[in-house]
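re: ur question from earlier - yeah i can do the single chain one, its not a big deal. heres the input i used so u can compare w yours
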Amino acid sequence: MGILGLTTFMDNNTWIFEKVNLHDTKVVIDGNNLYHFIFFKYKVDFVHGGDYDQFAIRIKEFFSILHACNIQPYVVIDGGYEQDDRKFQTIHARMQQRLEMAMRLAKGHQEKLMPILAYETFRSVLLEIGVPFAVCDFEADKEIGKLANQFECPVLSNDSDFYILPLTAGFIPFGSVELVQKSRKRSGKKGFHYLSAKCYNVNNFAKYFRALEMDALPLFAAILGNDFVERNTFQSFFSSPGFRSCRGQLPFNFDERQTKMRKLIIWLMSLHTYDDGIDRILSTASTSGEKKSMLSAITKTKEAYSANETSCVFSLYAFFAKNITQPHIPESIRGYNGSSIPSWFICCHRQGNLPQKSLDIITLHRTFLRTQLEDPESKSSYHCCIKLRKYLYGILLSDDVAVLEKHNRLSAERKCGVEEYDRDGDHLGRNVVLPDDIAGCYGNLPKLSEIPDLPSPDREQLFRFVLDIPALHINRLSKELEIVLGIILFWIKNVQQNVKEYHLRSVLLCLIMLKIESYDTHDATGYEHDLIDEAILSMPVESKNEVSARLLRYCQSKENQIDSHLIHGFAQLQTCLLTAIHLNYILLCPFPNPCISRIFSGTFLYNFCLDLQRRRSPDLFIYDLLSKDSDLANVYQGLYDALMTNSVSERIFVDSMNKKRIKPHEAKNKKNEVRESGGKKQNKVRIPAKEEKKTKTRPRDVVNCSLTNRFNALTSCDESADENEEN
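and the output i got, formated as C-alpha cells:
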C-alpha cells in the first residue's frame, strides 16, 4: 500500500529506530518489495529491457548473505486485488504513471522502470535455491504482519504501512540493513556472523500520542492518505480552523513540504479519546456524503492495520511451519459471475505455481498489461500475443462463463471476457477481450476444473498446438530448449513490426552467451543438457574463455540514446515469453518452465543487434565470434536453420543481412542488385541477373555442405567483393 510522506518522515527521524545485529533468527520478507529493492539497489540495467541474468545473480547474493548469518527467510508475495474494487482507481493511476514513465524513458529521459519479467526471474531463483515462499490470496501486508508476530521475528520491507502495523519484533527497512556480513566472537564459544541494521518498533512512535497511543496510528494513516483513501477525502478537515491553528513544539524533524503532517501530529497529540477525534473530523464535513466518505476511509484503514485480525483462511504459519496448504476456499473468493474456483487452482496459486495475477482474471475479469520500454509510435508490444492470451482466458474463465451459459446471458461485455488495460498510444486504453474456448482442429479447450485430470501428454499436446510448435528435428534437444525455441518461433510468426533477421540472430547468440556465463559462474542449471551444453563442455578451457570474453563485451551498458524502434522487437519477445510461461503454468507445466535469466539479457541483445546491423557478413562475423575450433558455430547455425525453416520468414523478416555496402560513386554502375524490402535506401550486394528472381523468393536458402565450407565460401565472396570495390 503505502502512506503519503511517511517514509520521508521516518528517514528524517532515524533516532526513533534501534540499532540491531541481525543473526540466528527468522525474518518475514515482503517479496514484492524485495525484488524491487534488489533490482534498483544494485542498478541492474532496465533501459535495454532488463538484464535478468545479472538480476538473478544479485538475488542469490542477497540470500547467500542471510544464510551466512544463519537468518532464515520466509518470503510472502502479494496475490490478486480485492473483489470490492476499492483500489481500482489507485491501481489505474499507477499503471498510467508507469506508462508515462516508459514513454519518457523511450525518449531518452531519466526514469526507473521494472522490467516485466522481473517477478518470474525472482520466483525462479527462489525455487532454485530453496527459499520458502508463498503467495497470498490478495494483498499481503496484514498476512506478513500476522506471520511475523506468530514467529516472533521482524519484518523486512520498504513499505511504509509497516510503520503503522503492530509488529511484536519490529520492522526493519531494507535500506537500513548493511548487506556486508560482520563477525564477532563470543567468549568461550564459536564466533558468529551478523548484519548491522536499524529496527523500528511501533511503540516508540505511538507513545508520543499519549491518550490514544496505538489507536492514533491508523487514524494518522487514514488522514495522511493511503491506497484506500482518495486524496481529497479529508480536504474539509485540513481547511478547518481547528486544524489550521495547530501550533506547538515537536521532537521530530520535518521537511519544508511536510507542514500538513506536522500539524496533524500536533492535532492528534491534543486528543483525549479516539471517539473525540472521530467526532471532530466528521464535524468538518459540509455534506452527509462527505461525512460518509470520511467515516468509510477511517474504518477501512483501521481494518487494514490490525495485523493479528485477518479474514484470510489461508494460514501462512501452517503453510511454512507445518507444510499445510489448506485448499479450503472461503465464500468471499468466487469468480466474477459467482462460480466456484477449483481448489487445485487456489493451492497452486498459494504455492506460487501460477501467474501472480491469474486470480484477478477469474475474480475480476480484469488485467493490467504493464507497459514496458518500447517504441511509442508502434502498437503495444502485447498486441503480438493476443491470440495466446485468448486461449489463456478461455481456460481461466471456462467455469465462470459457464454460469452465464446456464441462464443464456452471454454477451460481449466484461461478464464474458477480460477487461484489458494496455497502452494505446500515449494513454492507458481499455478493451474487453473475448476468450477462445476452441483451438482450431484441436477442439474444445479443457475447463479450468478439468486441468488436473488431463494426462501430461494431453496437456503437452495442447500447449504445442496453441503455440504451433513444430517438430524441429534437432539432435540433443532438451524439453527446456524446445519450449524456448517454440516461443521464439511464435514470436517470429506473430510479431507485428520492428523485428528483423538480426533480432533472431541476437536472441540465439544470447542463449549461447548465457549458457557460457552459467558455466563461468559455476551456476548449476538443474535442467537436462542439450546441444549447446555439450558444445560448451567439449571446448578447451582457453577457447571457451576467449569466446566468453568476446560475447561479454556486449553486456556493457552504454549511455547513448536508446533506439526504441530496435528495442520494440525484443519487447514483443518479452510479452510472448511472459504469456507462454503463464499458459504453461495453467496447464501444470507440461514443459519445464523457461528460466528467464538464461534466455534474456537486454543489454547484450541491444548492443549485439546494433553491432550486427553494421556487419557486411553477419554469418562470417558470428562464425569468427564463436571460434572456429568449437562446435558452437555449428550449433548456432543448426538452431538458426531450424527456426527459419519453420517460420514464415519471407513474409516477416526484412532481410538486411549479408548485404554489401556500396560506395557512393559506384552506385550508378550497380544494375543487378537485391534491395532490402521497404521504402528506405538500404545496403546492396551484386548478384548474377539470372539469380535475382530466386533470391527474392527464397532469401534464406540453406546450403547443403559442411558449415566450414560454407563459411569458407563466404570468406571468398567477401574478399572478392572487397577486391571489386578497390578496383
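The radius of gyration is 29 Å. not sure if urs matches, ping me
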